[in-house]
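Please go through the sequence and fold tokens given here and tell me how the chain folds. Record follows.
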Amino acid sequence: MTSTLHSATQKSMHELAAAYVATQAAPGVAVCLVRDRSVASQFYAGFADIERAEEVSAGHRYEIGSISKSFTSLVVLTLVDEGVIALSDTVQQHLPWFEVQSDYEPITLRHLLDHSSGLIMGSDSWPDEAAQVWALRSSSTGSAPGTIFHYSNVGFMTLGAVVEAVTGRTCTDLMRERVVEVVGMPDTITTITDNDRHTMAVGYQPRHEDRAWCPGDPLAPATWFEVSAADGNVASTAADMGRYLAMLLGRGQVDGRRVISEGAFTSMITPTSPGGEPAPGPSQYALGINVEQISDRTCITHGGGMVGYSTFLIGDLELGCGVIVLTNAPGDSPGAQWLARALFDALCADSQGSPVPVAPAYAPPPRPVLPEGNDGSVSGDLAAYVGHYRSFNPWFSHLRIAAVDGRLVLVAPNGVEAPGIVDLVEISPGVFREGTDPRLPERLYMGPVVEGRALWVARHDCRYSRTFRP
């Protein structure tokens, strides 16, 4: 591999980042490139604060969202190394109060780590981690553990509760001691509080909360709140996250300092789940990280979506190259992943002696045609459920129920945890499964019907009341 980035590649990368923030729902972006398992460079584009015209700089922090799950995995694996826990342990062994309605064998820690537990995704409607884990007792698993990949934020909250139960320390404290301080990430925090707000790039979201953002739509500052749950609790800078990625590409060590053993790292990147996060090609989830085969090489990836922040990490374990992209774009924006992959392709090509020209501009999908209202194909109780509902949960604030060709459809195109457009299948009176696959655990519960209209619907532990807007 060549030792320095070709000037043409550097130029194309900077142009690509500038074009991205100029045309997408991303006011600003911070990028770090890793080469030869070391931080190579960082660059920035756009604004950390639109209103104040404050440009992105090296000191701005971004919430990294679900990339935090890899931090949780590292903490769990250090405890496995020490013999405190085992991946085959059931959750109830360490949390006797844990309960979920299930017809299947107990859930293990491995099932939580690789998203094959069968648990719901979770609503993030409560700020307390333990409360959300306790509330699982009112939900059901849709599949036997280990049989399908179904992403679960509350599953990682459960891991956080397990860590605290066996150590007497919070998972976030152990992340700081066992990961952040060992790697050398001085500007990274593992609990986000109001005291940290002034250090953050301002997060943004579409001004219109109930529809997907498309080019030309206005943005507004996103809701701010404190975060400490183990599914998405970290805020960091591009440089710090570059060191973190360098550690992962170094198989658990950086600058001679080791976070986990070689054996534990091998476990971390060995896929055990039947599926993985959406990717251009086949992917499988391992333990807190997604694993893909790109150009016949093993690569690790993970995205992160928070309210007002969208991030993506990608690295080639064989070449030792990687990219971290941090943006203050809406958490469900696909652009951070696209930009990271485009920069990664250029970096890998350059590292093998093939500088590349400017990549093509990102083309977002067209605004979807969303069904609304009742097309006349349902009546009675089903017709009473059709309508527009909202909550004050910033993760996913609006949903619509529409009638299409004799069936009900959930329409939720905007929001970090929004499911998009999915069929609603009635499994008992007033209770609907989200999606046609009978193994899916997500449920929508219809509230009381008054004068022919349902007053509210409940999704997980969050209620959405009918709103006055159609």
